[in-house]
Amino acid sequence: MKLRRVAITGIGISTAIGDELATNISSWREGRTHFGEVGAASGLGGTAVKYAGECPEPPASRLPDRKVKKILTRKDVIGLVTALGAASDAGIKPGARNFDPERFGMYVGAGSTQIKDLTPYFPLVRQCVQDGVFDSLKFGSEMMDLVNPMVVLQTLMNNTLCFAAIALDIRGVNSNFMDFNVSGLRAIGEAFRSIQTGRADLCLAGGVASPVEPFHVGTGVNSGYLARSAELPWSAAEILRPYDRQRCGTVLSEGAAFLMLEDESHARGRGARIWGFIDGYGTGSDGPVEFMQEESAPGLSGSVRRACREAGINSDGKRFAADLIVGHGNGVSRSDSVELDAYALTMASGTPLVSIKSVTGELGEAAGVASCIAALDALALESVPPTFNFSAHDDLLGGQRLITSSISSQAQAIPGARQALVTQRSFLGISCSLVVSKA
Amino acid sequence: MRRVVITGIGAVSPQGNDRESTWAGVCAGRSGAGPITQFEASTWPVKFACEVRDFKLQADAYLPQHQKYLNRPSEFGLAAAHEAMMDSGLLETQPAADGHAETALSCDPELFGISIGAGIGAVSPKELASMLRSLAADGSYAELGRVVQDQTESRIFLRNHPGTLAYLLSARWNAQGPVTTVHTACASSGQSIGQAMLQIQRGEADVILAGGADSLAGELLLAGFCLLGALSRRNDDPKKASRPFDRDRDGFVASEGAAMLVLENRDRAIARGAKIYAEIAGFGETESAFRITDLPPDGRGTVEAMQQAIEMAGLTPEDVGYINAHGTSTEVNDRVECHAVQRVFGEQRMDLCVSSTKSTTGHLISAAGALELMFCVLALRDQKVPPTMNLDHPIPGCAFDFVAHREKVFTNEKPLRAALSNSIGFGGSNSAVLVKAHGTPSAQVTL
């Protein structure tokens, strides 16, 4: 089978920074974080987390139908607005007749249902719990009168996919991935495969997350995944420190990022602007590794090799020579360590490495897609953005481990750069890697 | 393009806690519906469901350190996966250094994957109870995060995340290849299996453990579907409640369980002398979001998914002898699906068997597609198809054999050679997975 070349023809992004692409990119380059204080209003009163990234309220005017705001959760409103933004950027609008709906697909990496989405149940559930025992008889007799009947529809985790499909008349291949933080990059990868192998002509793909809520934060603090920002002497902008010796956990952020992927000939046929291309994709898993106790990341190494091999990146037989890596780097101690190990095994020495998470925060299911956007920007400008808050590796890394990547808190010039590797890990050991190239 | 076969199957269902008892139950038309036993439901608008009963998870189905991550649907998934893996013959016994025997997977871990259709979680009021004390009288939850944070081992988020089961399976079976969780409501496991098939075809994996697990029989989810009005309220006769394609249908019956299939590169399976159940030869997926719970009345999306699966398999509609329908027993779904089948297979196909096993199993939501594909595979193996129970007054105008009330046995003169499983999800995702008898040439079938 002759594989088709896959172009990126549209970009949409919403983060705490805002929903303008240029504003997001300049913030990543200039180190302007938009983390705000969180507390009781988000169910986080009394937690060790003081800062998180929360999106501005999406304007109802950006929705295809204002009524959907009554049905959708905040996460899905953000996802829908961002997905439609990517489609609009690509010049894809319903009824435009510049695409075949049955050849138009969509892949989403979606955050899970949150406790805040179950609030319609809460007043009655609270009445029904006495001394830790749930009175299901009382609940059953009163729920039809006291609980919003739409609650189950509001909490469907494929709502971003569903409502974007309705708005854009998407009828083709589709899926909704729930692979934690790799879901968005997985969505891009699977959309790439579908277009490459002729199952679709174009696909909207990306991720959406709204993790600033009690379960994510409580579990994250308890496990050591999140920085205890309320107890640290630093400003909000200084907390997330990818690959740095003083890293102390990550900072959660809300957001969405979507790309329009398209068969190159289809894109050129309709005169679309091409932002770049996808050249390779790989996934992998660490297998029997405990949450937050990993000693290595074989899944990441495997996914990097597969993506680089497919992309035709030069190799000495062991290590690949990409022009840069936009890495997972989320400031979690073990995760950053094993990530660097994986690059030492798979990537040529001196390969520039950046994480934009010191500025964006950990965008969860949207994170890998935001990194793709950063990679496209870096290739276009031939300049790697800084990894803010990185100053030096720690003893563990410097002493026992071989660090081969080039990380800097300053921008690094990469003249003539063509291809970038983008990686993302989940905290349960699943990894995705993607290679993008400049237009 | 590589071909893909099924070499292992496991299941947990209201009919039984393994593959064969489940299959025997649906073929006998034995309903799994009964009064809800997991909690007191006598005041609920719906007082019955299809529950898994007498279930106990074997200790070697998961890693002991993962006990803290288990919930009801993931336990079903682990058990079904364990049965499928044991059935596959992929485990080899080898002598260990200490003289004891140990089992090892006869597959490169990097080419072994997991693909799961998982439900929307199973947080129960009981589980929430320790945290609900922090709720204010109006249900607000200003300090709920602190309550979760301060627990000794805060696992509620991971225990109830749809993606955790895939992780538990990848850890248990050392799968280091593609690990995927799909949630597209009722189409989840149809799509997860299709995804696995494509990954093996493309060479990204040699073996993938694929399927689904779900439980809709817990309080909050059951309440949600009660509120939506999607469930049958035939409280006086639960076993007659799920009646797909019948005039008097009034909604689906909540259910739970899991089904897992081992998908394998056909050449590899043949080379190792594996038992091969069937070839998974076609997959179609479409999106037909129209309104969130409704299908387009013309069957769009369902039609194209079936056509894609048949085309990918190199078959024609005439080659397909059995469709395990999505057939939920809801008014709109059954009517539209019948119309869609007519559009693909023609209006006069009395030789085409179309049955809905949801009449006995109830609706397993994210696990439905996997369980129903298992029925298609076992139908090919045993040359019989399970019945649609409670079908007393079929939807008029549909000239299919709905296999009403009693299983149908095929003959040597006219064997069943290919079968199709339909799944239609809330949110518009549709999948169709086609299996055919192993050994059938890829581009033609002789009936």
The major sheet of chain B is characterized as: 11 strands, mixed
Q: Averaged pLDDT of chain A, please?
A: 94
Total DSSP helices of chain A: 15
Report strand % of chain B: 15-25%
Q: How far apart are the first and last residues' alpha carbons of chain A, in Å? A: 24 Å
> What is the CATH H-level superfamily of chain B?
Thiolase/Chalcone synthase
Give the helix/strand class of chain A: alpha/beta
Physical arrangement of strands within the biggest beta sheet of chain A: 7-4-8-9-1-10-17-16-11-12-14
Low-pLDDT ranges of chain A: none
Which oligomerization state do the chains in this entry correspond to? heterodimer
Query: Which CATH top level class of chain B fits?
Result: Alpha Beta
Any idea how many domains of chain B?
1
Total count of domains of chain A:
2
**Helix and strand succession of chain B?**
EHEEHEEEHHHHEHEHEHEHEHEHHEEEEE
Instruction: Considering residues with a beta carbon less than 8 A from a beta carbon on another chain, report the largest interface and each chain's count.
Output: A-B, 102 and 101 residues
In DSSP terms (H or I, runs of 4 or more residues), the helix count of chain B works out at 13
CATH architecture of chain B: 3-Layer(aba) Sandwich
List unreliable stretches of 5+ residues of chain B: 442-447
- Rounded to the nearest angstrom, the distance between the terminal CA atoms of chain B is 25 Å
Précis, in short:
With 439 residues, chain A is of the alpha/beta class.
3D architecture notes:
The complex is a heterodimer of chains A (439) and B (447). Chain A is of the alpha/beta class and 439 residues long. Chain A folds into two domains: 7-113 and 155-438, Peroxisomal Thiolase, Chain A, domain 1, CATH 3.40.47; 117-152, no CATH class. Chain A has 15 helices and 17 strands. In chain A, the strands form four sheets. Chain A has an eleven-stranded mixed sheet, with helices on both faces. Chain A has a two-stranded antiparallel ribbon with strand order 2-3. In chain A, a hairpin with a 2-residue loop joins strand 5 (129-130) and strand 6. In chain A, helix 3 (74-89) packs parallel to helix 7 (159-168) and helix 8 (183-196) crosses helix 14 (367-381). Chain A is globular, with a radius of gyration of 21 Å. The model of chain A has no long low-confidence stretch (mean pLDDT 94). Helix content of chain B is 29%, strand content 22%. The radius of gyration of chain B is 21 Å and the shape is globular. By secondary structure, chain B is α/β, with parallel strands linked by helices. In chain B, the strands form four sheets. Chain B has an eleven-stranded mixed sheet, sandwiched between helices. Chain B has a two-stranded antiparallel ribbon with strand order 2-3. Chain B has a single domain, classed as Thiolase/Chalcone synthase (Peroxisomal Thiolase, Chain A, domain 1). Mean pLDDT of chain B is 92; it is low at 442-447. Chains A and B meet through strand 4, helix 4, strand 6, helix 5 and helix 6 of A and strand 6, helix 3, helix 4, helix 5 and helix 6 of B.
